[in-house]
Recover the amino acids of this structure.
């Protein structure tokens, strides 16, 4: 992390339903970023004929009890979003990192790590955080951040589609799941 970014404290701002279109628009760039890693591994990641990537509808993060949506800003500039839910991706998890995105300009700056740790501090309990194995940058990011946050006290699990399938999440991808505790 450069000295410049080490002095910056990103803001984690609770998003409201009025922010839903902003997050949904940013999610197109999130999907675009992920297509770099997932595009050849899975169906459905082809570049759209109309040239406009779409992300699944993220409105449930604003409408479902105990889901939390956040905008991430630095000096009033949007730099990403974080979406927290309580899907039982792993049994007995209190919190799940549903989606996490930092715009390219701030990736590899340490900003994402600062935000992730703010979130883990804010939501105490058992956590699950997943990444598609082909998205090696995300896997490395979460492994490093969670290792630092927990002082290397976490579990890393390789999960199949079948293990991750739930009624709320009927068509999952295989994932590398990180499990750890926060604030306990």
């Amino acid at each position: 992390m450069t000295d410049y970014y080490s002095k910056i404290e990103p803001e984690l701002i609770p998003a409201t339903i009025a922010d839903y279109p902003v997050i949904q628009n940013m999610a197109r760039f999130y999907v675009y970023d992920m297509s770099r890693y997932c595009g050849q591994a899975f169906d459905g990641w082809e570049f759209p004929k109309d040239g406009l990537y779409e992300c699944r509808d993220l409105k449930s993060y604003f409408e479902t009890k105990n889901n939390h949506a956040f905008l991430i800003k630095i000096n009033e500039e949007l730099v990403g979003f974080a979406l927290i839910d309580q899907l039982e991706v792993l049994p007995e998890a209190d919190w799940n990192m549903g989606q996490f995105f930092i715009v390219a300009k701030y990736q590899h700056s340490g900003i994402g790590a600062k935000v992730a740790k703010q979130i883990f501090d804010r939501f105490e309990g058992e956590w699950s955080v997943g990444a598609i194995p082909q998205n090696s940058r995300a896997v490395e990011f979460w492994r490093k951040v969670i290792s630092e946050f927990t002082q290397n006290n976490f579990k890393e699990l390789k999960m199949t589609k079948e293990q991750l399938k739930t009624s709320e999440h009927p068509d999952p991808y295989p994932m590398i799941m990180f499990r750890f505790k926060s604030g306990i």
Summary: The first strand starts at residue 11 and ends at 14. The radius of gyration is 16 Å.
